[in-house]
Amino acid sequence: MLLKENLIQAKNGKKIDSIGYAIKHKDDTFKPFKFKRHAMGDNDILIEILYAGICHSDIHSARSEWKEGIYPMVPGHEIVGKVVSIGNKVSKFKIDDYVGVGCMINSCGECSACKISQEQFCENGKVVFTYDCLDYFHDNIPTYGGYSNNIVVNEKFAISIPKNAPLDKIAPLLCAGITTYSPLKFSNIKKGDRVAVAGFGGLGVMALKYALVMGAEVSVFARNNLKKEEALRLGAKILYTNLKEVKEKFDFIISTIPTTYDVHSYIELLKFGGELAIVGLPPIKTSPKIDITRLVLSAGKKVYGSLIGGIKETQEMLDFSLKHKIYPEVEIIKIDEINNVYDNLTNGKAKFRYVIDMNSLQE
Hints:
Helix content is 24%, strand content 26%. The protein is of the alpha/beta class. The strands form five sheets. Strands 3, 4, 5, 10, 11, 18 and 19 form a seven-stranded mixed β-sheet that branches. The protein has a six-stranded parallel β-sheet with strand order 14-13-12-15-16-17. Strands 1-2 form a two-stranded antiparallel ribbon. Helix 5 (176-186) crosses helix 10 (311-324). The protein starts with a helix and ends in a 6-residue tail after the last strand.
């Protein structure tokens, strides 16, 4: 929970004391960790973190599977909290507003990508990710994420959350939600489209829910039948475990698979003009490759990658989710359960999304 001293520090322009759970090297386990946030600026807000989702990308980052991590590392980019202090020039929020923070906390704001709210593709290379990143606007100090009691964010990078929203279910929307919503919107999924979801973890569930509300008929591809009942309950037409048994062709497939796989086996299941959106990011060492020859022989089909979404689209996604009551399947945990949760996610034992109740931080 937020320390009373934090409000005094914020008011006096001091660095903000924070406590959380960190990992000190890629083979370490999570332990309590004290650190400091940068001082509040005129356009910053101080957020008391109430809930923090655990994303599979947290594991990839903590274990340096995409790049060498910055340690000590406090992961977490699915954050829901309450505004407790605001800078002198803040106009978007007031004290006690509920807000969300996703994968980014700042960018240059001046390049063409930032101006169209595609901040994740900042052309000046100054997007600041929520953790495991150098903060170019604050002396290149490392950023620390949501497995903690507070965070300081530029107001432009906070998402508005209504007072009556189910806060414990919203955190995963800030990554899993926008990551799947964005490509579905980009490919203009509509009523009558045949859509398939490859991989049925936290991302896959959200993709299924969004596609159904958009009017699509949705099938699921999974490694086994363990989640078949759940997939059908949520509205899937069918769950396939063997791609060779699939006879139908799809308008759109979204791959959320976080491990190595044969990309072309999914391309072959597209209709002419169909699209494959790839959002899952396996470890670099096992990342699947696309064979150019096979791609040419599959002419008339489109393959693209999608990376989260900009701030404007993230707000749109949240509003859409609240309107249609689209939420992830979540399990609320205490913060000292993080190590067990990482094991569950790595070993395929996790059902869907884990969310940390930050009230447990000081119990």
